[in-house]
């Protein structure tokens, strides 16, 4: 894993994300008669893709660099989304259907008399920001600590990550949990006083999403690019060897796992702000599996591939489901199989291959070594 | 012969699913000593190293190193105490460069948080260069370790062991798959290392053991069958029996 070559693309991809987001945001502020005008619908879609790209980046960090095939990362995404959703629901205030200034509509509907204790403080934006990070972070820390210290790995770990998100989905479907049951949290009006339905607010949120994603890309690049990143690769490819050198791979994995969960959580918060709803469906096991496919398609272990894969596959999904909705899942499955068979390094690997051909030089390739060790 | 034992195993037994891989094994190594362990396949040589390095917990028995009870520690803690281990199958980080393999091995930073902020110091660069020289890998410093030959990987792993600066090196079949010239060079290297460190080396290759010129322990069915100089041990009828009878 020789740094500069492997991660040159991260900076370029982050820059591209910023430029495209800025162009779309500006376009959405033009009058509809202008030929360069962008519809608010497109801005929201782009914001959603960038939120998903955060999830993909989180998945790539643990799968690509420490070899943890997570099949439950949407859980952290959704928890971050719910924490943000709580704040947005409180901001509705007395403008809800029942006009109750203290209780969200769904609690009035359930004839609750007061807010449950875990909703306290959720009307403060700083508390909400802390919850967006703290709740998924704490869950990831607890889960990771238990799993890694007992040396659960490989397919067993994948299965329990899947079980985790499934269990959360079932829990969030319960009305009694206090998060709106199967309807989830929605009907948001504004954030920090800005009307969520105004094009200006939406354009601003898209720009913020792009900035956060670019920042997360550079931060993860710094994490995996240095000496710590070398240790990650070592743990990924020959975990037991690192123990006999005196390292504790469980600690290494825990640190990266929690960092990854935080990235996913922020992605979830950005998602809810722009999509305007969060419900238990976001915990569905299929969502986590899709996020792994985005990473595989874009290129595992490249960071930029995760972002590219998330955006392209979701763009494909938007177009495809409008056209042949019932065939989307087959298309996604075929895409995954084709990638696995023909593009083991994903689109980024393909790009590097073409570049290499053109430059007639042979830079060292970074390829995950066989897991045998 | 009266020096304080650096490593001591006493009455150690391990059973895998009812099969006694190590059976009341006792062995002691003085500070500064190099010992060769020989024995037929399945004698328990690798399992003995697993026990010393914390990979396998013994069912019974005492395992002590420099006054520390090793049976209560995990692999990382034992490595930090100063025991380095080379595996039977060479195990290096194939996706990393030779240099980065050595960098990760260097004694010192082990906490993940410390590594997050760490920059390579000039002192570390010097240590790496020295290791590259010892292992004759300097021309391959920037090459991915996965691309090395089998013998080079064995040497890189020995280099990583030295990077840990252990008091004791456990070396499992270091010359398997090496040419004769490489085998003799490895014997020289180990003798050189033994000037400052204690070494336990497991090996089948009798030419190699002879070249080391050290005391030999013969393992058989999980316990010590014979111990002493190579000539005496190889003349022992029980040893001949075990080797011919396998
Ligand atoms: N983890 C294990 N589980 C079951 N049996 C094992 C395990 N490790 C070693 N053994 C058995 O213990 C015996 C000793 O093996 P080993 O120590 O590898 O021998 P050697 O290194 O001397 O060739 C062998 O019969 C082997 O099959
Ligand atoms: Mg063996």
Report the bound ligands by name, code or SMILES.
adenosine-5'-diphosphate, magnesium ion
Largest sheet of chain A: 2 strands, antiparallel
| Rounded average pLDDT of chain A | 90
| Major beta sheet, strand line-up of chain A | 1-4
Poorly predicted parts of chain A: 1-5, 360-373
How many separate structural domains of chain A?
1
CATH architecture of the largest domain in chain B: 3-Layer(aba) Sandwich
- Range of strand content of chain A: under 5%
- Annotation, overall tally of beta strands of chain A: 4
Number of continuous helical runs of chain A: 13
Average pLDDT over all residues of chain B = 91
Q: Kindly identify the CATH topology of the largest domain in chain B.
A: Rossmann fold
What is the end-to-end distance of chain A? 18 Å
Keywords (chain B): ATP-binding, Nucleotide-binding, Transport
GO molecular function, one term (chain B): ATP hydrolysis activity
Pfam families (chain B): ABC_tran, BCA_ABC_TP_C
Protein name (chain B): Urea ABC transporter ATP-binding protein UrtD
Offer a few descriptive terms:
heterodimer; A: 373 residues; mainly alpha; two-stranded antiparallel sheet; two-stranded antiparallel ribbon; 13 helices; 69% helix; globular; disordered N terminus; disordered C terminus; B: 246 residues; alpha/beta; Rossmann fold; 2 domains; 6-stranded mixed beta sheet; 4-stranded antiparallel beta sheet; 10 strands; 37% helix; binds adenosine-5'-diphosphate; binds magnesium ion; transport (chain B)
Give a structural overview.
The complex is a heterodimer of chains A (373) and B (246). The longest helix of chain A has 27 residues, at 3-29. In chain A, a hairpin with a 2-residue loop joins β2 (190-191) and β3 (194-195). Chain A has helices at residues 3-29, 40-66, 74-92, 105-109, 125-149, 154-173, 199-225, 227-244, 249-275, 285-298, 304-323, 328-342, 346-359, and strands at residues 185-186, 190-191, 194-195, 277-278. Chain A has one domain. By secondary structure, chain A is an all-alpha fold. In chain A, the strands form two sheets. Chain A has a two-stranded antiparallel ribbon. A two-stranded antiparallel ribbon of chain A has the order 2-3. Chain B is an alpha/beta fold and 246 residues long. Chain B has helices at 45-52, 75-81, 98-105, 112-117, 122-134, 150-163, 180-193, 206-212, 230-235, 237-244, and strands spanning 5-16, 19-30, 34-38, 60-65, 68-69, 83-86, 168-172, 198-202, 215-220, 223-228. In chain B, α3 runs parallel beside α6 (150-163) and α5 (122-134) packs across α6 (150-163). Chain B is globular and about 55 Å long. Classes of the chains: A mainly alpha (373), B alpha/beta (246). Magnesium ion is lined by residues 45-46, 88 of chain B.
């Amino acid at each position: 894993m020789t740094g500069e070559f492997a991660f040159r693309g991260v900076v370029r991809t982050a820059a591209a994300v910023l430029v495209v987001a800025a162009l779309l945001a500006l376009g959405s502020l033009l009058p509809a008669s202008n030929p360069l005008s962008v519809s608010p619908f497109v801005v929201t879609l782009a914001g959603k893709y960038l939120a998903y790209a955060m999830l993909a980046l989180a998945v790539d960090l643990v799968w690509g660099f420490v070899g943890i095939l997570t099949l439950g990362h949407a859980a952290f995404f959704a928890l971050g989304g719910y924490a943000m959703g709580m704040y947005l629901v409180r901001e509705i205030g007395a403008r809800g259907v029942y006009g109750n200034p203290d209780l969200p509509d769904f609690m009035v509907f359930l004839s609750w008399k007061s807010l449950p204790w875990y909703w306290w403080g959720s009307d403060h934006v700083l508390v909400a920001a802390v919850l967006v990070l703290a709740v998924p972070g704490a869950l990831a820390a607890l889960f990771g600590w238990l799993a890694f210290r007992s040396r659960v790995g490989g397919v067993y770990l994948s299965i329990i990550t899947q079980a985790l998100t499934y269990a959360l989905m079932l829990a969030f479907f319960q009305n009694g949990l206090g998060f709106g049951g199967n309807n989830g949290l929605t009907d948001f009006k504004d954030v920090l006083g800005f009307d969520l339905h105004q094009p200006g607010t939406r354009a601003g949120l898209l720009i913020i999403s792009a900035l956060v994603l670019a920042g997360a890309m550079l931060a993860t690049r710094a994490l995996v690019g240095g000496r710590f990143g070398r240790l990650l690769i070592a743990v990924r490819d020959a975990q037991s060897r690192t123990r006999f050198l005196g390292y504790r791979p469980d600690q290494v994995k825990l640190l990266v796992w929690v960092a990854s969960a935080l990235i996913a959580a922020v992605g979830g918060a950005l998602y809810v702000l722009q999509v305007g709803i969060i419900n238990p469906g976001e915990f569905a096991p299929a969502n986590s599996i899709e996020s792994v496919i985005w990473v595989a398609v874009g290129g595992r272990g490249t960071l930029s591939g995760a972002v590219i894969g998330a955006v392209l596959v979701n763009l494909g999904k938007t177009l495809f489901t409008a056209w042949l909705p019932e065939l989307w899942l087959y298309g996604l499955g075929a895409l995954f199989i084709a990638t696995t068979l023909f593009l083991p390094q994903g689109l980024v690997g393909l790009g590097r291959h073409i570049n290499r051909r053109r430059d007639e030089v042979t830079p060292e390739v970074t390829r995950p070594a066989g897991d045998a060790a | 012969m009266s020096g304080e034992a650096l490593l001591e195993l006493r009455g150690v037994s391990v059973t895998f699913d009812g099969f006694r891989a190590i059976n009341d094994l006792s062995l002691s190594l003085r500070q500064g000593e190099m010992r060769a362990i020989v024995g037929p396949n399945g004698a328990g040589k690798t399992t003995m190293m697993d026990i010393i390095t914390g990979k396998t917990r013994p069912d019974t028995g005492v395992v002590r190193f420099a006054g520390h009870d090793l049976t209560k520690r995990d692999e990382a803690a034992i490595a930090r105490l100063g025991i380095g281990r080379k595996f039977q199958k060479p195990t290096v980080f194939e996706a990393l460069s030779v240099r980065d393999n050595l960098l990760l091995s260097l004694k010192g930073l082990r906490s993940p948080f410390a590594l997050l902020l760490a920059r390579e110091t000039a002192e570390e660069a010097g240590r790496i260069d020295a290791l590259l020289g010892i292992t004759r890998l300097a021309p391959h410093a920037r090459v991915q370790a996965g691309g090395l030959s089998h013998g080079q990987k064995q040497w890189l792993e020995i280099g990583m062991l030295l990077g840990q600066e252990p008091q004791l090196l456990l070396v499992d079949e270091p010359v398997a798959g090496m040419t004769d010239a490489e085998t003799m060079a490895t014997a020289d290297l180990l003798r050189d290392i033994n000037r400052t460190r204690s070494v336990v080396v497991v090996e089948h290759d009798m030419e190699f053991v002879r070249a080391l010129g050290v005391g030999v322990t013969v393992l058989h069915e999980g316990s010590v069958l014979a111990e002493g100089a190579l000539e005496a041990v190889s003349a022992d009828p029980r040893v001949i029996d075990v080797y011919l009878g396998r």
